[in-house]
Design goal:
The protein is of the alpha+beta class. Helix content is about 35%, strand content about 25%. The strands form 2 sheets. A 6-stranded antiparallel sheet has the order 2-3-1-4-5-6. The protein has a two-stranded antiparallel sheet with strand order 7-8. It is globular, with a radius of gyration of 17 Å.
């Protein structure tokens, strides 16, 4: 960063650190102890849609990579596109196997990044639920290297109180996004 950048208040963006995803199992233990929320076994990666044979080949490689685990069901990996035109890869694991789910999310992010599709990566999320039916996701913002909780309610509303409570509980386990205006809603995200 140059002297002029300092004077003008410019900062460099935070480099993504995909290894932060491996903090999710520790956060899950903390969440279970403090709030009763447990992993759902579903997680997803969101990226801007890309057309072309190179991306089609990468998509097939990601599916093959995740389905290489012989203990997985054949339908445990699925691609979809949301109403906003973003692509999602959903991975399903046993709810008590969050470490493997995080490994899946990390592998997909790493494969996309390593193939030059890093700029298309938006976020990854892991779902959590409570026995009373409440649910939320911990969302990892790829370009910021931070997490935030997203707790949707019916009618595209959010449970802000739950989001703030989760933030307080996992603040020691995960790097939480400090700018609340960046806690974007991910309505209808696979994995919620």
């Amino acid at each position: 960063m140059g002297f002029l950048d300092i004077l003008l208040g410019r900062t460099r963006p935070t480099a993504p650190d995909l290894d932060r995803l491996f903090g999710l199992p520790s956060a899950a233990v903390t969440l279970r102890a403090a709030t009763g929320f447990t992993p759902t076994g579903r997680g997803s990666v969101c990226f801007s849609s890309v057309e072309g044979s190179a991306f089609a080949g990468m998509r097939q490689d990601m599916t093959d990579l995740l389905n290489a685990d012989t203990e997985r069901a054949a339908d445990s990996v699925e691609f979809s596109r949301d109403a906003y035109g973003y692509s999602w890869l959903l991975s399903r694991r046993a709810p008590d196997d969050l470490a493997s789910l995080v490994g899946d999310l990390h592998a997909v992010n790493t494969a996309l990044e390593g193939s030059g599709f890093g700029p298309q990566l938006l976020c990854s999320l892991a779902g959590f639920e409570h026995p009373d039916g409440q649910s939320f996701a911990l969302v990892y913002l790829y370009k910021r290297g931070t997490f935030y909780p997203f707790a949707p309610l019916a009618g595209e509303k959010r449970d802000n109180a739950l989001e703030l409570r989760v933030r307080a509980v996992v603040a020691d386990d995960l790097r939480i996004e400090g700018d609340l205006s960046r806690w974007f809603p991910v309505w209808g995200a696979p994995g919620l």
